[in-house]
Design goal:
Layout lengths: L51 E3 L10 E6 L7 E5 L5 E5 L7 E3 L5 E6 L2 E6 L2 E5 L1 E6 L4 E6 L6 E5 L1 E6 L6 E8 H12 L5 H21 L6 E2 L15 H9 L3 E5 L2 E2 L4 E2 L9 H4 L24 E6 H12 L3 E6 L10 E6 L5 E4 H12 L9 E6 L2 E6 L8 E2 H9 L4 H8 L4 E4 L15 E2 L18 E2 L4 H13 L24
Length: 506
């Protein structure tokens, strides 16, 4: 079994944003200090307040589930599922007709054989190109992998499993009702303990998700790591995050009638960034840099990182195929971000890279907490580069620590959204709904089922009974996959998400 953990970077198109430019829609501007006007009641209907508006457009039925690729950075060839409620229902492929019901107390084991997913429950099993496993409404299933540090997690909704194209593990997609997803994302991403900041986070996370659901053409909309929105499953939701999600249920930020790309980061260091400073492209009116006095509560409001010059030159030389002898940091933009860096080469082949590319090069070698943002000043002294910086992440859009600071200062969630996404409108237009199919009469596999029980295969031609020979078949086919010369990750031509990384800004 291969236990390599290989991250699959999500490719992006151009800057990853759709052009949603337009005039600002009647929201309060900043005061001279860059802060919003004094707090107002969340129910205020005064000019400039972020009032919730209805829309004829509704997210109902199947469209209100989001598909999230879970265990994004884990390669696992063996997983176990269980349920402590009313059991799990099995589907094959895209067929909506269930073929079996797995009773409470029975553990499902999934493994790989060639290009098929092999499922065992008790002493019975089947295999197919893809398998779906659904929990009943309001119930969760537990999922445990045999690889990586994640351990066991719980999820609402359904789990869709297939073998990755490279054969090195499963692709696991959680098809989960949108609002259940938002409750868990707020708990995974924010967790700072204040209600109004949590509400703002819920709206931003929902808007980000809805944008992906409308614009991403793929087997999944988002991944569960910080390459999209961190999602650690149902257990990440708390009473506070559930309250925040339910108090804002269905609310999304729009611009010119469409959901915005509600990017956010941990901390902007006291000044948010323009979107084009991080991702070269069209400036967006609702993603403008501005002073942010509320981010001062962040533990990353200021930081320092030092690196030996020779080590940095060596790493950049290896990365870009040059012999780097010096690094020049060009004048920062109006938002304080370093937007371009010149690599001075011995051979006279100088190269200019973006500030984000430089940060990624450093972080790739020294970890996420080395060069925490592109909001820094650099100087070289005594054979070292010293970076004095501010913030953590790209700094575009909402600052999580800034939202926390605003909440602690008495602002409501609409004020927070006004401040970080100026010129947007808060729309009440998307509804969540449970998507787990209703109960049907199915054969049942119990924990102590006997040999007389058998799998139903008449409804789906791809289902094959494999009984006691499973172990040897899986081992032989898995061995052939392990011995294959193909170990590459997904091809660059695969359909991929276009949303920008919201935390680190790669």
């Amino acid at each position: 079994m291969r236990k390599t953990i290989r991250g699959i970077r999500v490719s992006v198109s151009n800057i990853g944003f759709l052009c949603l430019l337009g005039t600002a829609i009647g929201l309060q501007g900043p005061t001279a200090s860059g802060a919003p006007a004094p707090p107002v009641s969340s129910s205020s209907e005064s000019p400039g307040a972020h009032n919730v508006e209805s829309s004829d457009s509704k997210y109902t039925g199947r469209s209100s589930e989001i598909r999230v690729r879970i265990f994004d950075r884990i390669q696992s060839r063996n997983i176990h599922l269980s349920n402590s409620g009313s059991g799990l229902t099995i589907y094959v492929g895209d067929n909506d007709t269930p073929i079996y019901q797995i009773r409470t107390g029975t553990t499902i084991e999934l493994s790989i054989g060639g290009t098929d997913v092999y499922l065992r429950a008790g002493n019975k099993g089947l295999h197919a190109g893809s398998i779906r496993i659904a929990a009943s409404d309001g119930e969760t299933f537990s999922l445990r992998t045999q690889s990586g540090p994640v351990g066991t997690r719980q999820y609402f909704g359904q789990l869709e499993v297939r073998v990755r194209p490279d054969g090195l593990g499963f692709e696991m997609i959680n098809r989960v009702p949108l609002e259940a997803y938002i409750e868990a994302v707020v708990g995974s991403e924010y967790g700072l303990g204040d209600l109004e900041g949590s509400k703002a986070m819920a709206v931003a996370a929902r808007t980000y998700a809805v944008y992906a659901m409308q614009n991403i053409e793929n087997t999944f909309h988002l991944v569960d790591s910080d390459r999209a929105q961190v999602y650690r499953g149902a257990a990440a939701a708390t009473p506070l995050t559930r309250e925040a999600a339910r108090a804002t249920a269905g609310e999304v930020l729009t611009h010119e009638g469409e959901p915005i790309e509600a990017v956010y980061s941990s901390s902007n260091g006291g000044h948010s960034a323009n979107n084009e400073s991080i991702w070269a492209g069209t400036p967006f009116s609702y993603l403008r840099g501005r002073k942010d006095p509320y981010d001062s509560v962040s533990p990353d409001a200021s930081w320092r990182f030092e690196l030996e010059a020779k080590a940095l030159h060596r790493e950049l030389s290896r990365r870009y195929g040059l012999k780097v002898k010096e690094v020049r940091f060009d004048r920062p933009g109006s938002d304080g971000r370093v937007t371009s860096v010149t690599l001075v080469s011995d051979g006279g082949r100088d190269r200019v890279i973006s500030g984000s590319q430089f940060r990624w090069a450093v972080v790739s070698n020294h970890g996420e907490k080395s060069l925490k943002s592109t909001f820094f000043k650099a100087r070289k002294k005594r054979g070292k580069y010293r970076f004095d910086g501010h913030g953590y992440g790209h700094g575009v859009g909402l600052s999580q620590w800034g939202a926390h600071g605003m909440a602690n200062s008495g602002y409501g969630y609409r004020d927070i959204l006004d401040f970080y996404y100026p010129g947007t409108r808060l729309d009440q237009r998307f509804e969540g709904s449970s998507l787990t199919p209703g109960a049907v009469s199915l054969p049942v596999i119990a924990a102590n089922s006997g040999a007389s029980s058998s799998w139903t295969s008449s409804t789906v031609s791809t289902v094959a009974s494999w009984g006691r020979s499973m172990d040897s078949k899986v081992k032989s086919e898995a061995a052939s996959v392990e011995g294959s010369s193909s170990s590459s990750t997904r091809s660059s031509g695969e359909k991929s998400t276009r949303l920008k990384k919201h935390r680190l800004g790669w």
